[in-house]
């Protein structure tokens, strides 16, 4: 029996709200009918919202979710098991892994290198996205979390350049040029678009690497004081569209009932159909989406009790 062909594996990392899921959706839509792509998503919340978004669009890819924990620590075992299941799919052409925005990608890569040495997994250059609307060279250099992202990346991408201040792209390239080791590519883009060439790149011959102990700091909170939450609702329950949007805008901007939300992703059934609603960078975005098996949301609260977010969302439910 011939040996199975190598399975290219791409890690697409970045902070919460930077556009990782958008980038993956863009790739999937460009390759509908051409490639069988598997996606492993480590959602920041407990209900697996990013996985639900990907399952509903982009040519029905093979999607697996590792929710409710960081894949570099609490959910590491779940990541390994999920990838092993993906490796058993004979027709899979490519595997994309999206760690949570709170994960240290370097620790994820340690796991993947171990698996690559024992399976047909072929680790490709790691892609890390940063947000142009938030980028500032001194902040990026001084904050350990952003340095972890940059240090782990082989390909460094500044996303959302359409929202950047003048001079941001040049400052990003100058900053990236100071990083060691040098990056394979330094890219600026909009709407998460990643060129085909980035997925064709291969890693250089590996050098001897030290295995560092796991000492990263999550970007938001820790497991003892978890700022994230999540909820699901049966598809039979319907949200009032305008009321739901008003709740999200209140949470994103001024806060409501002592709670302020930095990041929220949700798929909701409203009287106007099914919608993906998100909070990122203090703004609410919305777009229509195909029907799903249920409504669901994940969120990260920067102030107040995360449990209050569910009560506020449910205040927008229409009477049964």
From TrEMBL:
<dbReference type="Pfam" id="PF02492">
    <property type="entry name" value="cobW"/>
</dbReference>
<feature type="domain" description="CobW/HypB/UreG nucleotide-binding">
    <location>
        <begin position="9"/>
        <end position="181"/>
    </location>
</feature>
<dbReference type="InterPro" id="IPR027417">
    <property type="entry name" value="P-loop_NTPase"/>
</dbReference>
<dbReference type="GO" id="GO:0005737">
    <property type="term" value="C:cytoplasm"/>
</dbReference>
<protein>
    <submittedName>
        <fullName>GTPase, G3E family</fullName>
    </submittedName>
</protein>
<dbReference type="InterPro" id="IPR003495">
    <property type="entry name" value="CobW/HypB/UreG_nucleotide-bd"/>
</dbReference>
<dbReference type="InterPro" id="IPR051316">
    <property type="entry name" value="Zinc-reg_GTPase_activator"/>
</dbReference>
